[in-house]
Amino acid sequence: MHSGVASPADRRLSALIRHLEGASNAMDSDTITASPTSGFPGARNSVFEHVVRAPEDPILGVTVAYNKDSSPLKLNLGVGAYRTEEGKPLVLNVVRRAEQMLLNDSSRVKEYLPIVGLADFNKLSAKLILGADSPAIQENRVTTVQCLSGTGSLRVGGEFLARHYHQRTIYIPLPTWGNHPKVFTIAGLSVKTYRYYDPVTRGLNFQGLLEDLGSAPSGAIVLLHACAHNPTGVDPTPQQWEQIRQLIRSKALLPFFDSAYQGFASGNLDADAHSVRLFVADGGECFVAQSYAKNMGLYGERVGALSIVCKSADVASRVESQLKLVIRPMYSNPPIHGASIVATILKDRNMFQEWTIELKAMADRIINMRQQLFDALRSRGTPGDWSHIIKQIGMFTFTGLNSEQVAFITKEYHIYMTSDGRISMAGLSSRTVPHLADAIHAAVTRVV
Ligand code: PLA
């Protein structure tokens, strides 16, 4: 922790941990004290009478509120889900083509996959993130298991670490994706934060990051966003990544990459894997959680992979044997459809090529939305420096709007976003930019 005084975010984190622990204690004590008649049919009260209503999820709850709004002007910039210029969800052509091929192949059956998932998918996923020529892959030092998208990969990796690693503390950036602390706490790890974002410069707090990781206990796990940091859109430069690598290796910290946006930040799959490959190139160990939700548009198919890069092939194969013991009682084995789509595309040169073109088009549209929003605010003379909109990268802009301004925008303009002021640029279109710019202009001039 970077200071003796707990920050509001650290306090929130402690509250979450207490909440999670409290929930399981409450369950235990109720099991003991429930009245013997309370479960009988016809008993007056439900055996769940004590259950308190939980709040909506801070990100997915935005969609719940959006769905209830009947205004024709409504716009959902909450969850990070790609939309076309027409505001519609997109299924990539190459994905449709792969699905048609799978459908036409009558030899395909619906048998269970192995616990670790589809073998082709796992091999190709490791190659995609680590690079086709990665020595770690050639030396068989990487174990890859198919998981339920990025979230499931983080969860399985977290639980493996809680069971088999000597350090239970994971450092996550401040701020980070809201689900990170919950996933890792439930997996059995203890969550701490390291400074990442500087609200004054709206850039990286590099000094703070180095200090906090520098004072982390040796061996601690460090969660890093591979690219397109969520929610800030702020990434370290290649030089800063190299300094982070040196610090992490010199202190024997264990890097755990969350790669949810490969190809979405720059439009280039290799460029967006730079940070991960830098760490693998030094021969050290690391974890990588991959998601195909955004870059292949497979959100609801829940396709992802966890790769663990080990020192030797022997360690990797023992690690894999233990990953199976984590997965089997959790969900037994992963679903077959989405992973088959990914494998079909990744193993065919033409389809792969087609995918990269469609991916680049999505990334370019997002970059274009940044420019349009920036120009629209400038032309309205909206007070403030909005250059961070074009400097930040990936799916989100961290606008700097406060929670009152966000509430105002939602109430008056029917535009939905998370209360931290994050907007999904992928949800915007040329048609809706002026409406958002009007809303932001009104918020910053009328709500302080
Ligand atoms: N890691 C990061 C950094 C993410 O932003 C997300 C998704 C995930 C992992 C998990 O994605 P997956 O399980 O669907 O592969 N974040 C979204 C959606 C896009 C969400 O919150 O679930 C977001 O709006 O932040």
Automatic annotation (TrEMBL):
Signal peptide region: none
Cofactor: pyridoxal 5'-phosphate
Species in which this protein is naturally found: Forsythia ovata
Other comments on record: In eukaryotes there are cytoplasmic, mitochondrial and chloroplastic isozymes.
Residues annotated as transmembrane: none
Domain Aminotransferase class I/classII large: 74-440
Keywords: Aminotransferase, Pyridoxal phosphate, Transferase
GO cellular component: cytoplasm
The keyword Metal-binding is assigned to this record: no
EC number: 2.6.1.1
Self-association state and partner proteins as the record states: Homodimer.
Gene3D superfamilies: Aspartate Aminotransferase, domain 1, Type I PLP-dependent aspartate aminotransferase-like (Major domain)
Pfam families: Aminotran_1_2
GO molecular function: L-aspartate:2-oxoglutarate aminotransferase activity
Annotated PANTHER family: ASPARTATE AMINOTRANSFERASE, ASPARTATE AMINOTRANSFERASE 3, CHLOROPLASTIC
Catalytic activity: L-aspartate + 2-oxoglutarate = oxaloacetate + L-glutamate
Family, similarity comment: Belongs to the class-I pyridoxal-phosphate-dependent aminotransferase family.
Keyword Transferase assigned: yes
Biological classification of the source: Eukaryota, Viridiplantae, Streptophyta, Embryophyta, Tracheophyta
Protein name (Swiss-Prot/TrEMBL): Aspartate aminotransferase
